[in-house]
Design goal:
Blueprint (H helix, E strand, L loop, with lengths): L6 H8 L10 H4 L4 H13 L3 E4 L7 E4 L1 H13 L6 H11 L5 H8 L3 H13 L3 E6 L2 E6 L1 H11 L54 H41 L1
Antiparallel strand pairs: 1-2, 3-4
């Protein structure tokens, strides 16, 4: 099999039948006569086809033994199971690479190998193609799209722990996490009355005692206010008395 055969060559070979002629080959591959002639010339150069000219009749196209062997090998490999390279091809197609040269360069494989895998993918209906104007336009089928989607689904991996830190173990459903050890035998309880004395964590004050302290502080504040008012009144009276004495 020629090393430089590509997918266009392979598709063109499969379109050639016993009654195919040069003059009508453009209609077979949905291309102009000029594009069809270029493709046939390439196949002739690679030894895959030959022409039989009968004047004034049309020129018949004959597939050589090498061409028949190429088609036979492609059909045989199309029966093989879907493999990793097939997945790589449809992944590249899903990413937007649809031209032959782009696929060959991105996958770093020979054109012949790409042609065989593309042919298998079309036979197994992962890939569809449209041959028009001397160019093959590739696209994923629904089956191919779903296969790419399935391949992209992977189990989430735990993030690596940073240096100097600890990572919590992953628990199975229904399993409780072990509680961390505490400094004291019993955990600190929140005060019942919501008040804690300074320096005594967890100690509580009796509610009645708190009310007594608040009442005492309130009475003290009132007493201070009364005394201040009396002092102000006395000062005012003294000032008025002294002012009257000065006038007399």
């Amino acid at each position: 099999m020629p090393e430089d055969i590509n997918f266009i060559d392979l598709v063109a070979l499969t379109r050639i039948g016993p009654e195919t002629v040069v003059e009508k080959f453009g209609g077979v591959i949905n291309s102009s006569f000029f594009d069809a002639s270029n493709i046939l010339a390439t196949l002739k150069q690679k030894g895959l086809v030959d022409f039989t000219t009968s004047f004034p009749g049309q020129s018949a196209i004959t597939v050589t033994e090498l061409g028949k062997q190429t088609v036979s090998d492609a059909a045989e490999k199309a029966k093989a199971n879907f493999d990793a390279l097939d997945f790589a091809v449809i992944t590249q197609l899903s990413g937007g690479k649809r031209a032959m040269n782009e696929l060959t360069a991105s996958l770093n494989i020979r054109p012949r190998d790409l042609a065989m895998h593309l042919y298998r993918l079309t036979v197994q209906q992962y890939v569809a193609y449209d041959f028009r104007n001397g160019i093959v336009d590739l696209s994923l089928t629904e089956k191919g799209f779903m296969r790419v989607k399935e391949g992209m689904v992977s189990a989430p991996q735990a993030a690596p722990a940073m240096p100097g830190t600890t990572q919590e173990p992953m628990l199975q459903p229904g399993v409780q996490a072990p509680q961390a050890a505490t400094a004291s035998a019993q955990p600190m309880q929140a005060p019942a009355n919501g008040t804690v004395q300074p320096g005594q964590a967890g100690a509580t004050i009796d509610m009645k005692e708190l009310e007594t302290r608040l009442a005492t502080a309130k009475k003290r504040k009132i007493a201070i206010s009364v005394v201040a008012a009396v002092v102000v009144i006395v000062i005012v009276v003294i000032a008025l008395t002294m002012l009257n004495v000065v006038r007399l």
